[in-house]
């Protein structure tokens, strides 16, 4: 009996030996939720400005994109050092600015798939979170590493195709719409995979005191998943009308 117990303890120890932050995901979740709430506030404010003063919206939107990039790199660097008291207000501002930058997409979605489409995208993110939280932490080392490499390579290829769509669409307008359904579908699948990867990699990447850095990683996963689900629904809606 003692030999069997020691064997089980050894397996358990081997499975958790690679974890540097066993509680980091649990500690990060309230901040992920808070960031998403702030993002919705930013969207609400952006829609208000878009509706009341469209001429002012575009320069503010361009500024929000630039500010979003700056805040991301600053917040990531500070949070990765575990300086949470300094990182928290920067991350809060980042969430608001990200919401404002999504105003254009949300406005298009409201005009094409309606509030129901937004609900489907949000529900898809919620279901993905539940499944990822259950199965992502249970992945074996081989499965987790393989999925991580696949998703990382896939996201890199995805953004390369998006760059082709952006630049090529200037010269060949049909290319922009022609690639949209493919990009949106692939992005949805890849960021669903990224949600599972988060639950595997974050405890192996961040210490428990780096919970805001982990929260930023998870926040980006679910924001991007929401965006690509919404783009997919918009693309389907457009193709059905054609």
List the helices and strands and how they pair.
Elements: H1 2-16, H2 24-52, H3 54-80, H4 84-101, H5 103-112, H6 114-135, H7 141-171, H8 173-205, H9 211-241
Helix pairs in contact: 2-3, 2-4, 2-5, 2-9, 3-4, 3-9, 5-6, 5-9, 6-8, 6-9, 7-8, 8-9
In short:
The chain is mainly α and 242 residues long.
Give a structural overview.
- Pfam families: Bax1-I (PF01027).
- This protein is mainly alpha-helical.
- Helix 2 (24-52) runs antiparallel to helix 3 and helix 3 (54-80) runs antiparallel to helix 4 (84-101).
- It starts with a helix and ends with a helix.
- The longest helix is centred in the last third of the chain and has 33 residues, at 173-205.
- The chain is built from nine helices and no strands.
Beta content: under 5%
Secondary-structure content class: mainly alpha
For the CA atoms, what is the radius of gyration?
A: 20 Å
Q: Indicate the mean pLDDT.
A: 90
Q: Can you give the helix content as a percent range?
A: over 70%
Number of helices: 9
Characteristic terms for this protein:
Bax inhibitor-1 family protein; mainly alpha; membrane; about 240 residues
């Amino acid at each position: 009996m003692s030999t069997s117990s020691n064997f089980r303890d050894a397996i358990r120890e081997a499975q958790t030996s690679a974890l540097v932050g066993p509680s980091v995901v649990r500690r990060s979740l309230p901040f992920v939720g808070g960031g998403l709430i702030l993002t919705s506030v930013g969207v609400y404010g952006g829609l208000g400005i878009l509706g009341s003063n469209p001429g002012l919206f575009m320069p503010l939107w361009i500024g929000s994109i630039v500010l979003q990039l700056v805040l991301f790199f600053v917040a990531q660097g500070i949070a990765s050092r575990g300086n949470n008291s300094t990182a928290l207000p920067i991350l809060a501002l980042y969430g608001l600015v990200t919401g404002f930058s999504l105003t254009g997409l949300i406005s298009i979605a409201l005009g094409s798939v309606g509030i129901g489409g937004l609900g489907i995208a949000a529900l898809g993110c919620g279901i993905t979170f539940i499944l990822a939280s259950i199965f992502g932490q249970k992945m074996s080392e081989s499965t987790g590493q393989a999925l991580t490499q696949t998703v990382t390579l896939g996201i890199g290829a995805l953004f390369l195709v998006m760059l082709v769509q952006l630049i090529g669409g200037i010269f060949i307008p049909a290319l922009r719409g022609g690639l949209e359904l493919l990009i949106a579908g692939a992005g949805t699948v890849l960021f669903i995979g990224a949600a599972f990867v988060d639950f595997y990699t974050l405890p192996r990447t961040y210490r428990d005191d780096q919970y805001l850095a982990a929260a930023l990683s998870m926040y980006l996963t679910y924001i991007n998943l929401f965006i690509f689900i919404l783009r997919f629904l918009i693309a389907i809606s457009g193709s059905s009308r054609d």
